């Protein structure tokens, strides 16, 4: 489903435009290649789920500056008239290569590249990072939570705790890409064709003279959607017994109750006791849904102790990725094309982890011949031929020992795809979710663990490693 976004042309840091203004006066004919990548995975995980490409493309193709924008820029007294005229007649001319949404990606791998006029490529840095960092963060957290749920449906419940409306809307989209089955956010449900989920709040029960009456009235209005919140007063002494009474009334009228939700207390103990009460009353199919500040650690603990939970509603700790709330994706210059010559570029740092990989690159997922499970990824220069021939590679982790390896008997699947900006149309969010599950399934099991996952190797080719070393030595002179 296509979703129209408002233009965010001014959602940027001022220095993007200050630099672009300077480039207009000095390097106006230069072309550039920028890479988007990250160095660290949230929650000490192994990989990140890429999300947000649809919104990046939508923003870039409609990038423009209206009269009000130009007037504002003039008022800053920073910009040359030639630059302002360029903005007034702006058309985005850059090319984009990106991994498909839902792809698991590892540190230092370019997940998106932008190639085109230096001025334009520089201007869009903040906007691109804002979208990709947010949605990829939430999709990654969702993957962790859904992994912990072991196939049980997880409903995204976080709109009221999100940092603003856009975070709630696009966070719900990203949560589904990462594995969620539905959302309580009606706006996101409509926009992205996601099932809307939810029943009642405690205020519904409190508004009536008794809990039983509130349940009965709900069942009268929604006989086919009777999921009752049972923890307003006392789960086991009041909530579940009253729910059972209403379920019996519904059954007598030919309706099948959905179940109960518990939103507080000792979830493990209460679900076990509630399950026994429901089963003793003959309601074996009544589902137990739990919520209340859940995350992957709490869910794992509950299931390990045998809590009979059928569904999870996860809110604030998903929509904000509360335990690790930042994906520090970066946007770094990799090459300049000047007078027909490509000049690789490299950022040097006192920290080895922050030294970038130069040049125009491709990334590959590597499989042993005859195997559907990958064993490593590879970053290569774009002109290198990657195939079944022996290939000299080195671990791209800057903290590795730097030992050279020779790969044999492998097949390589290229991950970066050229995006047709004019005709780009994202898949349905559930198709992206299915693709995500398929791609995760190709990774080694030990890479998927929530705690102490095994590090998945990302190699770089010998040619790329040598180029990086040459540029490092040159920078030191």
From TrEMBL:
Limits of the Nicotinate phosphoribosyltransferase C-terminal domain: 361-468
Transmembrane region(s): none
Name of the molecule in the record: Nicotinate phosphoribosyltransferase
Gene Ontology terms describing biological process: NAD+ biosynthetic process via the salvage pathway
UniProt keyword annotations, A-Z: Glycosyltransferase, Ligase, Phosphoprotein, Pyridine nucleotide biosynthesis, Transferase
InterPro entries recorded: Aldolase_TIM, N/Namide_PRibTrfase, NAPRTase_C, NAPRTase_N, Nic_PRibTrfase-Fam, Nic_PRibTrfase_pncB, Nicotinate_pribotase-like_C
EC number(s) from the headed UniProt entry: 6.3.4.21
A molecular function GO annotation: nicotinamide phosphoribosyltransferase activity
Pathway(s) of this molecule: Cofactor biosynthesis; NAD(+) biosynthesis; nicotinate D-ribonucleotide from nicotinate: step 1/1
Record-annotated Nicotinate/nicotinamide phosphoribosyltransferase domain positions: 154-343
GO CC annotation terms, alphabetical: cytosol
A Pfam short name: NAPRTase_N
Species classification: Bacteria, Bacillati, Bacillota, Bacilli, Lactobacillales
Enzyme class: ligase
Family recorded in the similarity comment: Belongs to the NAPRTase family.
PTMs per UniProt: Transiently phosphorylated on a His residue during the reaction cycle. Phosphorylation strongly increases the affinity for substrates and increases the rate of nicotinate D-ribonucleotide production. Dephosphorylation regenerates the low-affinity form of the enzyme, leading to product release.
Domain of life: Bacteria
Job of this protein: Catalyzes the first step in the biosynthesis of NAD from nicotinic acid, the ATP-dependent synthesis of beta-nicotinate D-ribonucleotide from nicotinate and 5-phospho-D-ribose 1-phosphate.
Catalytic activity field: 5-phospho-alpha-D-ribose 1-diphosphate + nicotinate + ATP + H2O = nicotinate beta-D-ribonucleotide + ADP + phosphate + diphosphate
Domain Nicotinate phosphoribosyltransferase N-terminal: 10-133
